[in-house]
Amino acid sequence: DTAVSQTPKYLVTQMGNDKSIKCEQNLGHDTMYWYKQDSKKFLKIMFSYNNKELIINETVPNRFSPKSPDKAHLNLHINSLELGDSAVYFCASSQSLRPGDEQFFGPGTRLTVL
Amino acid sequence: EDQVTQSPEALRLQEGESSSLNCSYTVSGLRGLFWYRQDPGKGPEFLFTLYSAGEEKEKERLKATLTKKESFLHITAPKPEDSATYLCAVQVGAGGGADGLTFGKGTHLIIQP
User: How confident is the model at residue B97 (pLDDT cuts 50, 70, 90)?
Assistant: First the structure.
């Protein structure tokens, strides 16, 4: 019954590695997002996708790349991981492009880079 | 630059002691103001969307209001289960496109029995 799911929940890895976080939504929504929540709990938008097209791409390093095989999935690939990438990453989805459409968030993936 | 500021950063109340959380914003082209609740180790949970000044919405012990510069989340007779971090976020844009939310840093609310 989970609306927005993410895997894995925890990810511990070494600096320099490449990793992926998967996100799936079963709500039939058109738009999906990735957010980063840093150690100070500040939640910041990274990317959004609408019908498999990248809509916004905030000023994040190009080591981060979102990939959407279909509109129910939006995966986040991270290359050459750095210590500063340690954070909790949240996936979210919304019904459409209508202003004010609520965004439903997944449970988060805690990434720790050693 | 769009900004969202929440106050206080932390608030400790006794059960039944009503209070308000503040969210002030400086944005252009506001499309919506959102309130979310976040419990430790979980993703934000949607509470309300407000679109225009003067609008109010209620849900159980919570009531959200909006002016042209700020929003308040009023908590009436809170219970310990209302303890959480409350996040305010704005959605801006000229229309069209999927705009991500700009969040404030949140208010960490603790309700003591």
Answer: very low
